[in-house]
Amino acid sequence: MNNQIKIIKKSNSNYDKKILIIGVFHGDEWQGEYFINSYLKNSKKPKKNEVYYIPRLNNNTERKNKRGVDLNRNFPTKNWIKSENNDYFGGEKPNSEIETKFLVDLIDKNDFSAIITLHAPYKVINYDGPALELAQKIQKFINYKITSDIGYPTPGSFGTYCGIERNIPTITLEIDEDENIENLKNKFHKLFEYLENEY
Q: What's the confidence (pLDDT) of residue 179?
C-alpha cells in the first residue's frame, strides 16, 4: 500500500514545524486531491515548515475503501465500536485497514505540529484537540463556520485519534461542494502557502 499512497514532502533543512495535509479520506470527496495537486505543480520550497501532503488516501471512488470500510471510523480510539455495515461501517476491528495502519505508523514516526484533512461537503472547520487557534487562522483564508462538533457521533474517527487522544491539533476542513472550484482553489493555495511559510 505504501507504493499506492503518495506522500509529497516539502521541506527546508532547518524547519520549524511539521504539518500533515491529507486529501480524499472518503473516495467520493475528490476536492482535496485537486487542490493539493494543483498547488504542488508550481509551489516553491517552504521557508519555514516541513509539510507532508497526501493527495489521495483512499483509492476507491465511493465513500468507503475497496474493502467496504469507512476509514474515518477505523482508527483505534477508546470510543471505537463495531457498527452496522452501512456507509459508516468502521470495520470488523479498529486499525484493520491498510490505509489506517499507514497513517497510524506515519504519525507514530513523526512529531506533527498540526494535521489537516480535506473533506466535503459541510462547509465547516471542525477541530479536535488543541486546534481552535489553528481553526481561527484557517478561517481567515476559508471563511467557514468553526465548530468542535460535526453534529453526529464519529466513533473511531481520525480527529478523535489524533486530536483528542494524542493531543495533536487536528482540523477536518469540510469543503463547500457548491462553491466555484476555481475560486476555492485560490483560497486553498493561499492556505497551503501560509502553512508552509508562516504558521
A: 94
C-alpha to C-alpha distance for 39 and 10, rounded to whole angstroms:
12
| Residues 135/172, Cβ–Cβ less than 8 Å | no
CA 119 remoteness from chain centre: 7
Q: At residue 87, what are phi and psi to the nearest 5 degrees?
A: -60, -20
The answer to whether 60 and 27 are in contact (CB under 8 A) is yes
CATH 3.40.50.1110 fits 8-197, yes or no: no
Local confidence band at 153 (pLDDT 50, 70, 90 cut-offs): confident
Looking at residue 77, its amino acid is T
H runs (alpha helix) in 43-175: 98-109, 132-139, 158-159
CB-based contacts of 83, cutoff 8 Å, min separation 6: 73, 89, 90, 155
Cα-trace Rg, the chain: 16
For 36-72, the pLDDT digits (tens) are 999 999 999 999 999 999 999 999 999 999 999 999 9
Contact 17, 114 (CB under 8 A): yes
CA 12 to chain centre: 22
Q: Hey, what's the cell of 103?
A: 497513517
Question: What are the residue boundaries of the structural domains of the chain, listed by start?
Answer: 8-197
